[in-house]
Amino acid sequence: MAKKLPDWFVEGYGNIWLPYAQMQTADDALPVVATDGVTIELSDGRQLIDGIASWWTACHGYNNPVMQEKIISQVRNMSHVMLGGLVHEGAATLAKRLADLLPGDLNHVFFSESGSVSVEIALKMAVQYWSNLGEEGHHRFVCFQSGYHGDTTAAMSVGGNASGMHKAFSGFLQQQFLRPLPETPEEILEFGAFLAENKDQIAGVIMEPLVQGAGGMKFHGAETLAAISAQCQKQDVLLILDEIFTGFGRTGTMFACEQAGITPDIICLGKALTAGTVAMAATVATDRVYGAFLSDDPDKAFMHGPTYMANPLACAAANASLDIFRDEPVLERVKHIEGHLNQSLEQFRTLPGVVDVRVKGAVGVIQMEKIEDLARLRTEFANEGVWIRPFGDIIYLTPSFSMQSHELAALTQAIDKVLNRLN
Ligand SMILES: Cc1ncc(COP(=O)(O)O)c(C=O)c1O
Known about the structure:
Elements lengths: L6 H6 L19 E5 L2 E4 L4 E4 L2 H4 L8 H13 L11 H13 L4 E7 L2 H18 L7 E5 L8 H5 L19 E3 L5 H14 L3 E6 L3 E2 L5 E2 L2 H13 L4 E4 L23 E4 L11 E6 H5 L20 H16 L2 H16 L8 E7 L2 E6 L5 H10 L2 E2 L6 E4 L7 H18 L1
Parallel strand pairs: 3-15, 5-6, 5-7, 7-10, 10-11
Antiparallel strand pairs: 1-2, 2-3, 4-12, 8-9, 11-12, 13-14, 14-16
Helix pairs in contact: 3-10, 4-10, 7-8, 11-13
Bound molecules: pyridoxal-5'-phosphate.
């Protein structure tokens, strides 16, 4: 007999508006009562192995004791204090640690509370950078097809899927220079020529390095990233890298841009910054970008200030996560997961309906020709004891880095069963 839904679900569910969901027809969300390690516990007692680490955040697993201890002791001392005119130890320590970890002279950390907002901040920074230098008219961004940078207004405008998830807003959004991601030497040259021709209007180029996540988990090589960066430098166009998904080990190095040996002008961080605990993001600028805001003129100050920026609980969480990266072989774990995914996903390549299988770091993707019924697939995965949320035409895994081999095997066994049932 099916277990009774909890009272809080029956009473409150109707008042929740869920993300990306057609509320009239969507299946009810599953009631969660606890998390632990790599599992999500449902109110009916089922334990789901989480294959996507809560939208790529919980990189050290759930309820990590190091994280918990630091967050709890921070709650006891100070949960929040505004950053305007005041500063606290957690923020200063975190800013210094991020600057030390990031490549080059990405030294100036502007905190916010979500990835989309950190992108808005990066875009505003780039626009005001040019204006502060007295170069007016740099108001448009170059962005790439299949890119995704969040759901706020300017972030949507630089997304590469205007006719897809954000199509209701197409008439409302600023028109950007949306282009195919250049990969071949000819395309790179053409891209450089495009920058040269339009650079008086361009405030910057924005892209997700190595993996375009929410746009379909599409990969490109480090040499492509290096070549795009080189063209930006040649044409003196700012490069903004959105590492909200790729940052903190996901692609095998602490930051994806390290693999291309490049330093962007501005970088956006979020998601795994606090390892799936407290909401936080950051936009980090180089000395050059920051320098353009220094002046005797108050109008040249950067005009942005989220209420909860550098929230002390979030800073404690991010510092605790960086302690784990420092003290434990986290990148080795990513390498192990990469090896496991490479081996175990390969078996799906020859299944009917599968057009590609690809792995980078702790990202594994099974590209289907088409997924007819996403909702059914998601339910089938839950029924197999795993939390895997396919979207578009892909089934993907982005597990916590703490996931063990037998848990990874459980994920691939569930995929095997569900895919074979579909065929
Ligand atoms: C690359 C990238 N940028 C920005 C965002 C938006 O972040 P948030 O959902 O925290 O606003 C996401 C979220 O998936 C993302 O993957």
